[in-house]
Amino acid sequence: MEGETLPADQDVPRDDNKPRECECNAEGSLVSTDWFPDDLLEQILACLPFADLVRAGVVCTRWRRITNSETFRKKLLHGVSHRPRFVLHGFLGQPACAYDPVHNVWCKLKLPRFEFRYYSSILGFASSTGLICVYGKSEGGIDQLCVCNPLTRICRHIAPAPSVESQLFATLAISVSRTTPSYRVSLVTSKIPPGTQVGYELSIHLYDSETEMWKTCTTVYLRGWRCCAESAICDGVVYFLFFSPSTASRENRYGLVMYDLSGRCSNDLLASFVPVPHPHGYGRLMNMKEKLVLVMDIDGYNGVGIWVLNGREWHEIARSPDDYFPGLGSNARLRSCGLNDLIYIWSGDGHDHPSPYIATFDMNQKQWSRNNLATVPSQDYKGFCFEPQLDIVP
Q1: Residues 6+ positions from 187 with CB-CB distance below 8 Å
Q2: pTM
Q3: Does 118 fall in a domain?
Q4: CA 274 to chain centre
């Protein structure tokens, strides 16, 4: 891990090659930590910003032993590690920028090299607990998928799912088990079958880390419907947004469909269709403690609403303050991600209307807040969040 913590109101990223002044007096006395007992040193190291945790492990043999110990990991698990960190992933060699909500700082975060051809080849991010999943194109234009721990930078490349070479639209989701060291990745794809002019062939592919194999759960032909770029796995069910580009009326052009991975329920996709609260809006799906949450811009409101799915009904739990997202829905585009109880929201059309800040919503406290993005241009970054954990391996 390479990272330096920055005040939240400073520009990020900052050039590490620039010389920095020493922050301590060379003639002053330094306090040694050699005499600290292990339990006290564990408490001190556990308070470090997450970008410095891995770097602390290379200071000396003792610090490495402590940061790799089971007791230290338990302190992290029972401390602040459940607060998800937000990451803006750059392109063209720009470093990623990570926001730590506990210490209210931005830092540089060196991610694994995904070996994709260029930024636009990254088709999607998905995250669950301490792992992120990235789907894109390799240098040869071949579909590529990898799962990694962004804190330890341990990465696993997964063989492409079957029959996805000619897909036009795809959405990615990952679900990490909290009881076993395993995870599942779903990839929903839509493509136009050969010899047809209308309609899409929709397939749901599932990867299981225990078997290290893909399986195609279902393949159906849907006239006029395709998947959007939003999906989530909650409690063994894959949810994804549907879109009908051929519908004459704008009503019900968007909707939610679901597929039960266990096979306990009927998997008639159209029968599971649930309209979204605002069919004119643009929505994002996320798993918040096994509850499906929809974040969507509200047409004519210039704001954002948050809903939780209960059965087949949406329940609105919050709306953003009036001044948080000016211009949203006209030129600016909603972007959002979340884990556990914290949702990150920002907007921007990528060119003329970059969002000046990141807004957050705490599901427990029902509280909105925002943090300045400084000069980070929204068109140059894609965002995701993760829960920093040292002990999880892809």
Answers
A1: 135, 145, 161, 164, 170, 171, 172, 204, 205, 206, 207
A2: 0.78
A3: yes
A4: 24
List the domain range (segments joined by +) for residue 211: 112-275
CA 205 to chain centre: 20
Q: pLDDT (tens digit, 0 to 9) for every residue of the chain, 394 residues total?
A: 444 434 433 333 344 433 333 333 444 444 555 666 676 777 677 777 666 766 777 678 877 787 777 777 666 655 555 678 888 776 545 667 788 787 777 777 777 666 555 545 677 789 998 899 988 776 666 677 889 888 778 889 888 777 666 667 788 999 998 888 899 999 988 887 777 667 788 889 999 999 999 998 888 888 777 777 789 999 999 999 887 766 545 566 778 999 998 876 666 787 788 888 887 777 899 999 999 999 988 865 668 899 999 999 999 999 998 878 766 655 567 788 999 899 998 875 444 455 557 889 999 999 998 876 544 544 556 788 888 877 788 8
Residue 268 resides in a domain: yes
Question: Which secondary-structure segment (H or E) carries 63?
Answer: helix 61-67
Query: Does any domain span residue 91?
Result: no
Number of domains in the chain: 1
